[in-house]
Design a protein that fits this description.
Elements (H helix, E strand, L loop, with lengths): L9 E5 L20 H13 L3 E5 L5 H7 L4 E2 L7 H4 L2 E3 L4 E10 L14 E5 L3 H6 L6 E5 L6 H10 L5 E5 L13 E13 L2 E3 L3 H17 L1 H9 L10
Parallel strand pairs: 1-2, 1-3, 6-7, 6-8
Antiparallel strand pairs: 4-10, 5-8, 5-9
């Protein structure tokens, strides 16, 4: 479906934060840009529905769809049993591994080097679950009520309030190998599947979005969005 229609907007809950290439802060001039907004725009075009972003703190994204304030969450939602108990998910639109970011020169190279060190991650996330597997590390949860939890974690790392940050490898892409303050210590091949979350009482909405996502994958349009925003990461759904 590609023709323009007057159907209701596709309301998507998201975190309003700067985390390129995944997403950018919303601006009146440009809206949101990045891989996830690119996926959203492709979905909207496929469904003939304009995209409307419902910008809320991280902890309020799933409650927003449960309340009916948004149709779905398209914002960094790894498909986990805990989240599946609260919402239903589409098929994955991304598969990412997880990285451990440190201050440059710290010398951390492996999980064994994290013994006695403070390791930040977003609370109740797949990243926190990984942090909790590092024997002897001290997990430090971030996120409750924050408007930009990723920026909070980077600031804490720079201020030496924590020694490492765990997040999906995609969010560390723009930091690169030559960033003056940070470096990637190591990556764990966790292959986390990210999906679009929909309230359990809206099966028709789930089927509509999932069907559109299936068409984007089979047609190669999702691959095109991936290559535009994530060219250094392997496309996970075949060519």
């Amino acid at each position: 479906m590609t023709e323009t229609t007057t159907r209701a907007p596709l309301r998507l809950a998201c975190l309003d934060a700067e985390a390129p290439p995944l997403f950018s802060l919303w601006t009146p001039e440009n809206g949101r840009t990045g891989y996830e907004p690119g996926v959203a725009e492709a979905l909207g075009a496929e469904l003939g529905r304009p995209v409307e972003w419902v910008r809320v703190p991280w902890v309020d994204m799933i409650p927003a769809v449960q309340r009916g304030d948004a149709d779905a969450v398209l914002c960094g939602q790894g498909i986990t049993p805990e989240r599946q108990a609260q919402v239903d998910f589409t098929r994955p639109y991304a598969i990412f591994h997880e990285g451990v970011l440190i201050r440059r020169g710290t010398g951390i190279k492996s999980p064994e080097d994290l013994v006695g060190r403070k390791v930040a991650a977003i609370e109740n996330s797949t990243n926190m679950k990984l942090a909790e597997t590092f024997t002897g590390a001290i997990p430090v949860p971030f996120g409750a009520g924050s408007d930009d939890v990723y920026a909070d974690m980077l600031a804490a790392l720079l201020a030496e309030e924590v020694d490492a940050v765990v997040d999906d490898d995609v969010v560390f892409v723009p930091l690169g190998a030559t960033h003056p303050d940070y470096e990637l210590a190591f990556t764990v091949k966790t292959a986390n599947k990210w999906g679009i979350a929909v309230s359990k009482d809206r099966p028709d909405t789930l089927a509509e979005i999932d069907g559109a996502l299936e068409r984007l994958i089979s047609s190669g349009r999702l691959r095109d969005v991936w290559k535009e925003w994530l060219p250094t990461l392997d496309y996970p759904f075949g060519e």
